[in-house]
Amino acid sequence: MYAVTVWGLLFVLPILSIVAEVISRGPSAFGPELIGKWFVFWAVGVRLFLAGLVQMLRPQYTARKILGIAGEESLVVVRELGFANTSLGVIGLGSMLASGWALPAALGGALFYGLAGVNHTGRTSRNTLENVATITDLLIAGILLIFFIMATAR
How far apart are CA 82 and CA 104, in angstroms? Predict the structure, then answer.
């Protein structure tokens, strides 16, 4: 279920949202801003907000199932990761109301996902769920970074 949710929020739903908006507004709507809008909303906003809620309410899921850490000591750190994820997620969600938030959310999301992905690659004992996190973190970091670079180069 984790893998389906992550792939759906990071790639399937943003692409479907882009396609739906192009169909409703016409092909001229397609461009970096539209792509960024939907990837920021789904990948930074919804994904990080939901991950943060789970980490705050059920830190043992992230610690044990994804990271393979059995001790109770890690739960306070995972819960604080949840605070950060929820906070960044709120900025991503807010980008739908204030379009000026999209670029900061994209940059923050790219840094977070990129650093998390690189951190995962350094762990030699990754399980399947952490492998999913590693791959998707690095892919979405690249997409968000490309959007940020294209949008700021204009």
Answer: 19
On the 0-12 / 13-18 / 19+ scale of CB atoms within 10 A, 151 is middle
The upper half-sphere exposure of residue 59, i.e. CA atoms within 13 Å in the direction of its Cβ, equals 17
pTM over 0.90: yes
User: Alpha helix locations (H) across 47-127?
Assistant: 48-57, 59-60, 75-94, 102-121
How many other β-carbons are positioned within 10 Å of the β-carbon of residue 81? 19
Token pair of 30 as six digits: 């397609």
Q: Please provide residue 71's backbone torsions phi and psi, each rounded to the nearest 5 degrees.
A: -70, 155
User: In one letter, which amino acid is 93?
Assistant: L
Per-residue confidence at 88, pLDDT binned at 50, 70, 90? very high
Q: Is 3 strand, coil or helix?
A: helix
- The first and second tokens of residue 126, run together, are 């990754």
How far is it, in rounded angstroms, from Cα 6 to Cα 51?
10
The answer to whether the CB of 110 falls within 8 A of the CB of 92 is no
